[in-house]
Design goal:
362 residues; Catalytic domain of cyclic nucleotide phosphodiesterase 4b2b; 18 helices; 66% helix; disordered C terminus
């Protein structure tokens, strides 16, 4: 269960290992608590999860992977995430990977995906934010960061995540036993998947998905269509936090906003214009979350539900999404009410969604 990553000793007692193993037996359930799993594995959630998933999916046997090289590669990926980032850290990567596993087990997909598809989907999920600096692309551009000039201000972070992943794949020698053209194809497809997580390309993917669903011309026997659906699945997994149950969802929301606020503090410190959503004094967590759900998450998951229909998981996710949005609406009302008490000249707000939404607050 516990991989020995370089430079780390896993001195966990049997009780913790037993609990972690028990959690892994339910790794395909949507209420999987990645925060608890990370504590039980002593901060090794990503490595432990990936080793387990590669095993249960038969990928180690199918690709004849060397276990020492696999542990080395996964250890490098996990170490390359910044643990001091509140959101973009190895626990987020593990969370996205667990969601991705749930999605590739959906009936519509599971029947059609090849071992290579599953390998690519899990690998891209695990590495999609590797070495994330905890600030966004506009920040890198306006501070003239070397990554921004290297990738010409386009998909800067995603390009870096991909190229870092390729570097670690080559350094670990994980794919060195495969034919050169196959390992090259894997690297390119990983790039295409990771680059799809660029939020600036959201509409491009959403429009294409809608067209396929409207025309009913999605053919998963075609490699190009399977790859497109893997891109969509990874995009869903990357932003699925609002589709988790409230307690897990709320923690992720607070973490991502904390990361935004830290960027805003940096911008204030260096006398730069504060980026949207990054000003703690004006951008509340509830307001940020309602905007994120309305403009990014809901449109994407509505189409994902159409694609996976009839899917119990999609119903569960949409149920959580609507409840969580109602919770944030109520909290925004409470937050705005508190603001009006502090600043009496501000007009008192009307509660959003009426009493029914208020009852949704846990």
């Amino acid at each position: 269960l516990m991989p020995h990553t370089p430079g780390s000793l896993h001195l966990l007692d049997d009780d913790y290992l037993g609990q972690a193993a028990h959690m892994l037996s339910k790794v395909d359930t949507w209420n999987f608590d990645i925060f608890l799993f990370d504590r039980l594995t002593n901060g090794n959630s990503l490595v432990t999860l990936m080793c387990h998933l590669f095993n249960v999916c038969g990928l180690i046997h199918h690709f004849q992977l060397d276990m020492v090289k696999l542990h080395r590669f996964l250890g490098m990926v996990q170490e390359d995430y910044h643990s001091h980032n509140p959101y973009h850290n190895a626990v987020h990567a593990a969370d996205v990977t667990q969601a991705m596993y749930c999605y590739i087990k959906e009936t519509k997909l599971a029947e059609q995906l090849t071992p290579l598809d599953v390998f690519l989907g899990l690998m891209a999920a695990a590495a999609h934010d590797v070495d994330h600096p905890g600030v966004n692309q506009p920040f890198l551009i306006k501070t003239r960061h070397h990554l921004a000039s290297l990738y010409q201000n386009t998909s800067v972070l995603e390009s870096h995540h991909w190229r870092s992943t390729v570097g670690m794949l080559r350094e670990s020698g994980l794919l060195s036993h495969l034919p050169a053209d196959m390992s090259q194809d894997i690297e390119q497809q990983l790039g295409s998947l990771i680059l799809a997580t660029d939020i600036n390309r959201q509409n491009e993917f959403l429009i294409t998905l809608r067209e396929h669903l409207d025309n009913q011309d999605m053919d998963l026997q075609l490699a190009t269509h399977r790859h497109f659906i893997l891109q969509i699945a990874l995009k869903c997994a990357d932003v699925c936090n609002p589709c988790r149950e409230w307690e897990l969802s709320r923690q992720w929301s607070e973490r991502v906003c904390e990361e935004f606020y830290r960027q805003g503090d940096l911008e204030r410190k260096f006398d730069l214009e504060i980026s949207p959503l990054c000003d703690q004094q004006t951008d509340s967590v509830p307001a940020i979350q309602i905007g994120f759900i309305s403009y990014i998450v809901e449109p994407l998951f509505e189409e994902w539900q159409r694609f996976t229909e009839p899917s119990m998981l999609s119903q569960i996710m949409m149920g959580h999404l609507h409840k969580n949005k109602a919770c944030w609406s109520r909290l925004r009302y409470v937050h705005t009410l508190a603001e009006t008490k502090t600043h009496p000249h501000v007009e008192e707000p009307e509660p959003e969604g009426g009493q029914e939404e208020a009852e949704d607050i846990p």
